[in-house]
Amino acid sequence: MKPVVIPLLVTAIGSGFVNDPNLVSAQTWTQTSAPTTNWTSIASSADGKKLVAAASNIWVSSDSGITWTQTGAPTLGWQAVACSADGMNLVAVGYLTPPLLGVVYTSTNSGVTWTSNNVPNVPWKFVISSADGSILGALTSQGVFYTSADAGADWIANSLPSGTWFAATTSADGSTFVVSGLVGICISTNSGTSWTLTNSLFEATTIAASASANRLVAVTGGSIYTSTNSGFAWTQTTAPVTNWASVASSADGVRLVAVAGAPRYIRYPPPPILPGGPIYTSRDSGLTWVSNNVPSQLWSCVASSADGTKLFAAVSSGGIWTSQSTPAPQMNITPTNGNLALSWIIPSTNLVLQQNSDLSTTNWTDVSNTPVLNFTNLQDEVTLPLTNGSGFYRLATP
Predict the structure, then answer these.
(1) pTM for the full predicted model
(2) N or C, which terminus of the chain has less Cβ within 10 Å?
(3) Which overall architecture, per CATH, does domain 5-18+329-396 show?
(4) Are 107 and 99 in contact (CB under 8 A)?
(5) What is the DSSP letter of 253?
């Protein structure tokens, strides 16, 4: 079968053509086979194929939500989950009620088996993971932040300033942590060893980051804000003011998604209680927003693939929904040490790298080199010998 080509061409000197990003949008959502329950958190692998979702039990999917399996993690009040970029390493935090004894569990095989971590018995409410799953951060209900540099084997409390903290996010490499709460935004650029409290964006209840954590998106006061400097300064977006519950970002921070309905944490004074909420997406880093074609629900959490075209949203006392739009990947090309380095954000659909020496022909051939996932930027990378002739490369569906 002749491949359907993503309209993206790159020559050996680095020129290229990319789809207009305004043509790419997630509009229509469909409900998956996930059970109806009180979902509190959902996380996705970089390609959007592997999922982990939390309620009173932890469920996983390895086929983008088509089928779901309940894992062997214990039944309790799971509050948050996170996963590595390949979906293999999972981490979950929660507590028993009563008597509010907290637990942290990790898995290295996509949830097949779980290990209880050696952590204090306190109520845990949020957790984050680096893309390779080695660096973890977990937030307690008392506002204490713990970090692990060995995938959960050991945890230490760090110097996060005391306060009421709601949520956290991290860069793909785990070097930058950003925590949001009543007292503002707190930033660490050394995996939690030291922190800087900014005088910005007070009371943000949910936050998400690009792979570099330079671009952020957060919610406070019913509005959505973005930052382009890791959280030191913020700009209110044009998204409508409503009861936003969760936000997610693509790896480059260009495609954003926000769901409304059932916020995890309530500000004071609390916003008006609404029967449900919409889902909005942005494909220009929050400059403009589009309302998606989805029923009004009490949406509680949302997750995104690295390219931002495969999205997942869960309902409080409901199911899990998904949306897929056509990716328009931008290929990066760099001569490096006598070689040609090609890279692109890991796609949420199957794509193959092809090459051709002459655009006037149809002699496209698959590049045999297997792309390698770079965990620091969530990009697939291929290194090829640099030749004196011209070459053309494209990404196509097989």
Answers:
(1) 0.90
(2) N
(3) Sandwich (2.60)
(4) no
(5) S
User: Domain limits of the chain?
Assistant: 5-18+329-396, 26-324
For the stretch 19-59, pLDDT in tens is 333 334 447 999 999 999 999 999 999 999 999 999 999 99
**Residue in the structure block whose two tokens are 């959007």:** 48
| pLDDT tens track for 125-142 | 999 999 999 999 999 988
Q: If we measure between CA atoms, which residue out of 140, 149, 136 comes closest to residue 167?
A: 140
Distance (Å, whole) CA 343 – CA 332: 5
Residues 378, 170 contacting (CB under 8 angstroms): no
Burial class (CB in 10 A: 0-12, 13-18, 19+), 290: middle
Distance CA 239, CA 224 (A): 6
pLDDT per position as a tens digit, 68-79: 999 999 999 999
Contact 204, 247 (CB under 8 A): no
Phi, psi torsion values for 23, nearest 5 degrees = -85, -5
Q: Could you identify the residue written with the tokens 């910005």?
A: 200
Q: 320-373 pLDDT, tens per residue?
A: 999 999 888 889 988 888 888 999 999 999 899 999 988 888 889 999 999 999
CA-based nearest residue to 261, from 189, 195, 308, 314: 314
Query: Strand, helix or coil at 22?
Result: helix
Least Cα distance to 377 among 255, 207, 252, 254 occurs for: 252
Strand 51-54 and strand 196-197: the pairing is: unpaired
| Domain 26-324 falls under CATH 3.20.20.10 | no
Instruction: Please say whether the beta carbons of 122 and 116 come within 8 A.
Output: no
Strand order from edge to edge, sheet including 177-181: 165-170, 177-181, 184-188, 196-197
